[in-house]
Amino acid sequence: MSERLLYLVKPGELTLKGGNRESFMRILKRNLVTMLRSGAPGSQLRSTAGRLYVSCAEERAARVEELLSRLMGIAGWALARTCEKTPEAVLAACAEEGKRLKQSGAGSFKVEARRTDKSFPLDSYGIRCAAGDAVRAAVPGFPVDVQNPGEVISVEIREKAYVYSLGKKGRRGLPAGSAGRGLLLLSGGIDSPVAGCMMAGRGMGLDAVYFHTPPYTSGEALDKTVRLAEIAGSYAMGMRLYIVNFTGVQRRIKEKSPPEWNTVLLRMAMMEAAFFIARRTGAKCLVTGESLSQVASQTVENLNCGESPVRNHKNPVPVLRPLIGIDKEEIILRAKNFGTYETSILPFADCCVLFSPVHPVLRGDPREAGSLYEALELGDPGSGTGLLHEALAGAEVKKCGYYERTGNSEGY
Ligand code: ATP
Ligand code: MG
């Protein structure tokens, strides 16, 4: 039988949340269990004293780490050795860990120790000294450096003894699904997938909507957006993607309005359609990838016009724009970090690009925008007629990024 490995997982910001801590912890555990059941069946999750422990078969290690790298709400994790709670066993485990670190290229080390079980014969200081000596004796040429260590070997004496190092950083934030639901306006671009991942990292559950314009936009553009929804969805513990055909709406805008207004009017129609989907799904906000002044449609005046149809409804929802103050270079770094970038830059144009006017309105007047929008007569989806209703009634829904249970689920 292959060896079982143990990962120590440290929850993030939720340790600070006082009375809410228990409920955040419950959601975090539920998310991790869901991930493991799907991606690493046979793994086990245990929690004590604010720590999570995942044990898995050795051959599942890469998959478990991949899942942990998508889990919102953890500060980090480390692969731990468990051993008997005796000084001899702990020092031997430290020596083994020291050998491994030296072999993997570390230049120096220090030992950190915590003892919650006070019956252990050495106190934390005693463990640090003895373990330091044990490592130096076992690994020649591997010096202690307390100020600036290459690696830190940690010892924890709890219900068992744990020795670990080489911790990996988690995504921090809050567990997805702990902060209500939002509806992401997802295009095939760089920005909106990042906006979605960021909101998932603040605990928001997400659904998404994509407006496409066949035959002006290709099947490849749709496939690309579905792939982006799969990635963003994997951080949000799954999301439903509403695919809405906006060809009729786009044509109407082109026929009835001055070309320089096309982009603003299109954004207004998208926002209103998204608002109706949000109403149906119970989403409490819309989320976009807009960033101030990045393009003509994103001046503060045009942002105001864009969201005005939502405000004009009863019980409007807020439009959240997590990227509003973030520049493109930083957004690209985040896109690379979330793993959406490579897909976003595939060269399939979305509908906005094709219908973009050469000289768009830069500072749209909300009253003028309102009357041009009225003149489009897109109808009220609530009434069951009109172009918006048709577009929404024909929406296709795809489940993206869910962790479905697979194989044997032994251990749960
Ligand atoms: P992105 O990179 O997210 O496409 P962008 O910089 O290209 O953003 P715009 O095309 O002006 O900017 O879009 C602004 C925002 O409007 C997007 O971030 C997204 O939230 C929403 N959006 C744009 N096009 C679509 C679409 N076809 N379907 C759904 N939402 C869209
Ligand atoms: Mg775009």
Keyword list:
412 residues, Rossmann fold, seven-stranded mixed sheet, six-stranded mixed sheet, 14 helices, 20% strand, disordered C terminus, binds adenosine-5'-triphosphate, binds magnesium ion
Task: Note down, in words, how this protein is organized.
The chain has 14 helices and 13 strands. The protein starts with a strand and ends in a 12-residue tail after the last strand. By secondary structure, it is an alpha/beta fold. The strands form 2 sheets. Strands 2-3-1-4-7-6-5 form a 7-stranded mixed beta sheet. A 6-stranded mixed beta sheet has the order 12-11-8-9-10-13, with helices on both faces. It has 2 domains: 4-169, 2-Layer Sandwich (VC0802-like); 181-400, Rossmann fold (3-Layer(aba) Sandwich). Helix 1 runs antiparallel to helix 2 (61-68), helix 3 (87-103) crosses helix 4 (124-138) and helix 5 (191-200) packs across helix 10 (328-338). The structure holds adenosine-5'-triphosphate and magnesium ion.
Layout of SSEs?
Blueprint: E1 4-11, H1 21-39, E2 44-48, E3 51-57, H2 61-68, E4 74-83, H3 87-103, E5 109-115, H4 124-138, E6 151-157, E7 161-169, E8 181-185, H5 191-200, E9 205-212, H6 219-235, E10 239-245, H7 247-256, H8 262-281, E11 286-287, H9 300-311, E12 319-320, H10 328-338, H11 341-344, H12 351-355, H13 366-376, H14 387-393, E13 396-400
Parallel strand pairs: 5-6, 8-9, 8-11, 9-10, 11-12
Antiparallel strand pairs: 1-3, 1-4, 2-3, 4-7, 6-7, 10-13
The structure holds adenosine-5'-triphosphate and magnesium ion.
Magnesium ion (MG) binds near residues 187 and 189.
